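Milestone 3.1: sequence recovery, worked example.
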């Protein structure tokens, strides 16, 4: 069977690698000209995503990925802060976690290597239709086209393929705008290194300002101790942070800025919302070239609303169908699980029965998408609630109370696991 995959991001490359390994004829088209020119942040892959990936790529690729990844089991519990730096609570014990964090660039590069010559870069797809033999056909900006037995839209949030199938966009802005950046741990004062620790933290405050700080150490905390296999772009303990604000004309204007100007403007926004100065050091000392904006798009959290089309020879996966804000760290994992599931549904299926197999795959994908969207939207709604007329004063009043209760209940936990 000949499969055309539109989009060589996380899900499309995972599918391409799996189909190629399974003996299918596959070609993956991406508009990018360089797979490493992708976001500088990290991706969390949970055990389900890793198991799916294990079934799609060769054992050596999996070992290289784990040797390049930071193991959550080696991290301390996550901490939740308020805008003044007061501890509000702790996340679960991670010592038995099988999840890993990996640079997005590393993950995409390893997957692209697994797809090899079947990945075609610099090829932006402009549409999909049906050729004279009734087969699906994708078209490119230069007027050329390619037919296949199956077309899979893995072209992300603003998918051309899924929008064609759904006769409209499959997601909409979630109401939050995000900015990410990287700060080497060594760039922080000793006190701030101690406060942030070897863990991920989430800070919230009134008016929808939030700051996630993820800890990535693929060398010291490697998931697989095999430095000779590592392809990590992060070479020392690093905080990768995400600043979030409700979308407004003022926060949208930040998207026009880059580098040091954007970093300064972000600090100003947090100061305006009365964040304690030490909580902002991680932004103030970030590599200015790493600071970038990203928009949160979200599809519906209801499975019945996802992939609203009849199954056929054109389908889609990942963010193209269930665009997921990064607030649960599950979007890429879901795209990989879609890819594994689709590959399994196509295995050994006679060509004539492909639409039925796609129907079964899409049913499972709808449920998977709804699950990750529900998890991600909980945090989005919480952040937006702190921006409401009641939510803003309530957040300011409740934060010190929750912090006081946390101090009384968990006096010893701040320092360690
Ligand atoms: C800051 C941030 C942090 C995140 N953290 C996590 C995390 O920790 N864990 C997690 O699981 N998820 C995370 N996510 C979400 C995750 O990145 C996405 O859910 C995931 O990448 C979706 O994979 P995908 O393959 O569906 O789409 P993408 O990875 O977005 O890939 C889509 C690809 O399609 C290509 N493309 C688009 N249009 C065309 C076209 N017309 N023609 C050809 N090519 C096209 C694009 O160039 C791109 O390469 C994060 C996202 C952000 C922004």
């Amino acid at each position: 069977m000949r499969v055309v995959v539109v989009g060589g991001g996380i899900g499309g490359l995972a599918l391409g690698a799996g189909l190629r390994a399974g003996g299918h004829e596959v070609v993956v088209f991406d508009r990018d000209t360089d797979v490493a020119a992708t976001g500088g942040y990290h991706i969390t892959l949970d055990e389900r995503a890793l198991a799916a990936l294990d079934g799609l790529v060769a054992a050596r690729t999996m070992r290289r990925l784990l040797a390049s990844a930071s193991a959550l089991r080696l991290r301390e519990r996550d901490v939740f802060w308020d805008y003044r730096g007061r501890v509000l609570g702790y996340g679960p014990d991670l010592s038995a976690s099988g999840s890993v964090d990996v640079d997005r660039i590393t993950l995409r590069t390893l997957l692209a290597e697994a797809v090899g010559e079947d990945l075609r870069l610099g090829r932006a797809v402009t549409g999909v239709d049906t050729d004279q033999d009734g087969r699906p056909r994708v078209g490119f900006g230069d007027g050329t086209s390619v037919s296949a037995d199956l077309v899979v839209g893995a072209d992300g949030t603003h998918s051309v393929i899924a929008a064609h199938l759904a006769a409209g966009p499959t997601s909409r802005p979630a109401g939050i705008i995000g900015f990410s950046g990287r700060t080497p741990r060594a760039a922080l004062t000793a006190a701030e290194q101690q406060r942030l620790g070897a863990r991920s933290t989430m800070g919230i405050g009134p008016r929808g300002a939030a700051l996630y700080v993820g800890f990535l150490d693929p060398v010291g905390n490697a998931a697989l101790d095999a430095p000779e296999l590592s392809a990590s772009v992060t070479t020392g303990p690093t905080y990768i942070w995400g600043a979030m604000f409700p979308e407004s004309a003022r926060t949208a204007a930040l998207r026009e800025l880059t580098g040091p100007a954007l970093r300064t403007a972000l600090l100003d926004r947090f100061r305006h919302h009365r964040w304690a100065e030490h909580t902002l050091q991680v932004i103030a000392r970030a590599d200015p070239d790493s600071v970038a904006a990203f928009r949160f798009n979200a599809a519906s959290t209801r499975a019945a609303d996802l992939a609203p089309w009849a199954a056929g020879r054109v389908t889609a996966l990942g963010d193209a169908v269930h665009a997921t804000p990064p607030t649960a760290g599950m979007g890429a994992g879901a795209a990989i699980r879609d890819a594994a599931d689709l590959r399994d549904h196509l295995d050994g299926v006679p060509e004539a029965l492909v639409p039925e197999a796609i129907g079964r795959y899409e049913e499972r994908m709808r449920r998977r998408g709804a699950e990750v969207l529900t998890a991600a939207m909980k945090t989005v709604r919480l952040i937006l609630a702190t921006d409401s007329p009641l939510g803003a004063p309530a957040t300011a009043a409740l934060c010190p109370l929750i912090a006081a209760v946390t101090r009384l209940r968990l006096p010893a936990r701040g320092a360690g696991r």
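Residues 6-12, 29-32, 39, 41, 43-44, 124-125, 154-156, 160, 180, 242, 294, 318-320, 324, 326, 329-333, 335 surround flavin-adenine dinucleotide (CB under 6 Å). The domain at 70-99+173-296+387-417 is CATH 3.30.9.60 (D-Amino Acid Oxidase; Chain A, domain 2).
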